[in-house]
């Protein structure tokens, strides 16, 4: 049987309206802000290698309000991938991939986690594909970055910020 009232079930399972609007997350646009690929040892770096190079991947997420809007946020995912053997760099790919998101009806305490966990999670597959394509186009096997746990990154960032605040509080004269 279908629900024809147009009301979504609430936490109690009935169709009564709670008076609160449902949170909505919309992607307004996605874009490449910066893309760089370097292979300083080419064409020598493209020769067949006996072993896989060491690969380091850095990830950073930033979020800012768009032009004073209370609902629109610019979220940027930065990926920095370096491959090398010893002190020799085979390639260095950098991507700053962004999206403008509209967050409506989110409680204040949920807004920051949505911006730093859910938004980059939505951007990641597109950024991953760009890095894969640019490394392949650079003459290397495509670099397929493993999925990233943005919740864990967010928790680490919060813990680091708390530790920094504690250090600042203990270092201030009483």
Automatic annotation (TrEMBL):
<comment type="similarity">
    <text>Belongs to the SecB family.</text>
</comment>
<comment type="function">
    <text>One of the proteins required for the normal export of preproteins out of the cell cytoplasm. It is a molecular chaperone that binds to a subset of precursor proteins, maintaining them in a translocation-competent state. It also specifically binds to its receptor SecA.</text>
</comment>
<keyword id="KW-0813">Transport</keyword>
<keyword id="KW-0963">Cytoplasm</keyword>
<dbReference type="GO" id="GO:0051082">
    <property type="term" value="F:unfolded protein binding"/>
</dbReference>
<keyword id="KW-0143">Chaperone</keyword>
<dbReference type="InterPro" id="IPR003708">
    <property type="entry name" value="SecB"/>
</dbReference>
<keyword id="KW-0653">Protein transport</keyword>
<feature type="region of interest" description="Disordered">
    <location>
        <begin position="1"/>
        <end position="22"/>
    </location>
</feature>
<keyword id="KW-0811">Translocation</keyword>
<dbReference type="GO" id="GO:0051262">
    <property type="term" value="P:protein tetramerization"/>
</dbReference>
<dbReference type="GO" id="GO:0006457">
    <property type="term" value="P:protein folding"/>
</dbReference>
<dbReference type="Pfam" id="PF02556">
    <property type="entry name" value="SecB"/>
</dbReference>
<comment type="subunit">
    <text>Homotetramer, a dimer of dimers. One homotetramer interacts with 1 SecA dimer.</text>
</comment>
<dbReference type="GO" id="GO:0015031">
    <property type="term" value="P:protein transport"/>
</dbReference>
<dbReference type="GO" id="GO:0005737">
    <property type="term" value="C:cytoplasm"/>
</dbReference>
<dbReference type="InterPro" id="IPR035958">
    <property type="entry name" value="SecB-like_sf"/>
</dbReference>
<protein>
    <recommendedName>
        <fullName>Protein-export protein SecB</fullName>
    </recommendedName>
</protein>
